[in-house]
TrEMBL record:
This is AAA family ATPase. It comes from the Bacteria. Residues 35-180 form the AAA+ ATPase domain. Keywords: ATP-binding, Chaperone, Nucleotide-binding. InterPro entries: AAA+_ATPase, ClpA/B_CS1, ClpA/ClpB_AAA_lid, ClpA_ClpB, NBD_SMAX1-like, P-loop_NTPase. Residues 326-372 are annotated as: Disordered. It comes from Escherichia coli.
Length: 456
């Protein structure tokens, strides 16, 4: 009924946890106490409550914890497995008591993590609800069981604070929402994971845009969760466009099918005499030809951009030392390429060159010793000249991809997302003055306060 989170950390299944050192240190202090050594992590949904426990598991694996917590396993309670099939009254309590007995008698110290603890603790007050607080209190009071609970503020006030005996045994750990700067640091720590998962590259401007734009435009959700979702979606879109046609081509293909169906219907009506006016038929045929022409142009542009982008990605991976065939030479690809002709001349003077090395050196002679950096610059220039403000395939995730995702989610126009905030505030007086007449004093006061609020 539980999953070993420490084993997941040991096997590299957990993502790095950043900007949460204070909260993790506070949890370690509480866990090392003699009494009241059970933290309850409280915060809004999406701020990273579960990530704190993952960070603690990573520290335990790395040995960066006090001796009292070394070689400790963190077990995550599987509420679904615990409740499944426990329809008979008393079955759930029997299972949980057996679980507590195993945790207490385990030769390896175990910390039990109960995520969404409000679903079990205090829910027994409702008709037919489950309540394990009465089972937990004796074990927690005797210090036999170490538990970490996680819940939201509303549920904590509803269930924990009302039960004085239970709240005394848990020590509160507050988890607040990080600001945009901290969210950017968190995204930098996760970027390598998403790059490997999606097979794309992410630039730093995209990470900053994901944090700042999601904080500004995505209300009702918390950082860093919403910024991570935006970044994940942008990475998925870039990866999808590398292998499948973009949505512009899909939209034109659908439109062509609709026009074909209308043409067939009009031909049928003209053939049997239901329609005598051919003007609509002529109009649809012209539109159909225009759609096919635009579709052919888009498909040609997509294939050209796709070829260039794949070569750009391969060169970037080569320079970063990611490509498998470049794993041995180490990442100094520029130095290797620049020194290659000298080594070739030395080998020609000293003696014969092995056949496999000669085959490997022959393409470099025809390439006229163009370094990967120079070739990358050439391909990037070709891509910039090719897309002509109609980029169908991107070689990496940038702030334009992030802005496009947020614009689609919120309905805010893309050009507004791309504007600098201070330039918008600077021109605010003119824009409001063109729309609102006779309120110059109020507009000036609003403008002054906005400038003051955004001042460094």
């Amino acid at each position: 009924y539980a999953k070993n989170m420490t084993a997941d950390a040991r096997n590299g299944r957990l993502d790095p946890v950043l900007c949460r050192d204070h909260e993790i240190d506070l949890m370690i202090d509480i866990l090392c106490r003699r009494r009241k050594n059970n933290p309850v992590v409280v915060g809004e949904a999406g701020v990273g409550k579960s990530a704190l426990i993952e960070g603690l598991a990573l520290r335990i694996v790395a040995g960066q914890v006090p001796d009292k917590l070394k070689n400790t396993d963190i077990m995550t309670l599987d509420l679904g497995a615990l409740q499944a099939g426990a329809s008979v009254k008393g079955e759930f309590e029997k299972r949980f008591k057996g679980l507590m007995a195993e945790v207490i008698s385990s030769p390896v110290p175990v910390i039990l993590f109960i995520d969404e603890a409000h679903t079990l603790i205090g829910a027994g007050n409702q008709q037919g609800g489950l309540d394990i607080s009465n089972l937990l209190k004796p074990a927690l009071a005797r210090g036999e069981l170490k538990t970490i609970a996680a819940t939201t503020w509303s549920e904590y006030k509803k269930y924990f604070e009302k039960d004085a005996a239970l709240s005394r045994r848990f020590q509160l750990v507050k988890v607040s929402e990080p600001n945009a700067a901290e969210a950017t640091i968190i995204l930098r720590g996760l970027s390598a994971v998403y790059e490997q998962s999606h097979g794309v590259l992410i630039d730093d401007d995209a990470l900053q845009a994901a944090a700042t734009l999601s904080e500004r435009y995505l209300s009702g959700r918390q950082l860093p969760d919403k910024a991570i979702d935006v970044l994940d979606t942008a990475c998925a879109r870039v990866a999808i466009n590398l292998s499948s046609p973009p949505k512009q081509i899909s939209a034109l293909t659908t439109l062509s099918h609709q026009q074909e169906a209308e043409i067939r219907q009009l031909e049928r009506e003209l053939r049997i005499g239901l329609r005598t006016d051919t003007s609509r038929m002529t109009e649809v045929l012209v539109q159909y030809d225009e759609t096919l022409t635009a579709l052919d142009e888009l498909e040609a542009a997509w294939h050209q951009q796709q070829t260039l982008v794949r070569e750009i990605i391969a060169l970037r991976q080569q320079l970063l030392g990611v490509a498998e065939d470049d794993a041995a030479p180490l990442p100094d690809a520029d130095t290797v390429e620049d020194t290659q002709p000298e080594s070739e001349s030395e080998q020609d003077n000293t003696g014969a060159v092995p056949a496999d090395e000669a085959d490997r050196e022959q393409p470099e002679e025809t390439a006229e010793t163009v370094s990967p950096v120079q070739r990358l610059a050439q391909l990037t220039a070709e891509l910039d000249a090719l897309h002509n403000d109609r980029l169908l395939v991107s070689p990496h995730v940038d702030k334009k991809q992030i802005a496009a995702v947020i614009a689609e989610w919120t309905g805010v126009p893309l050009n507004r997302l791309s504007q600098n905030e201070m330039s918008v505030i600077t021109d605010l007086t003119k824009w409001l003055g063109d729309t609102i007449k006779g309120q110059d004093l109020a507009i000036a006061s609003l403008h002054k306060h906005l400038l003051t609020a955004r001042a460094d």
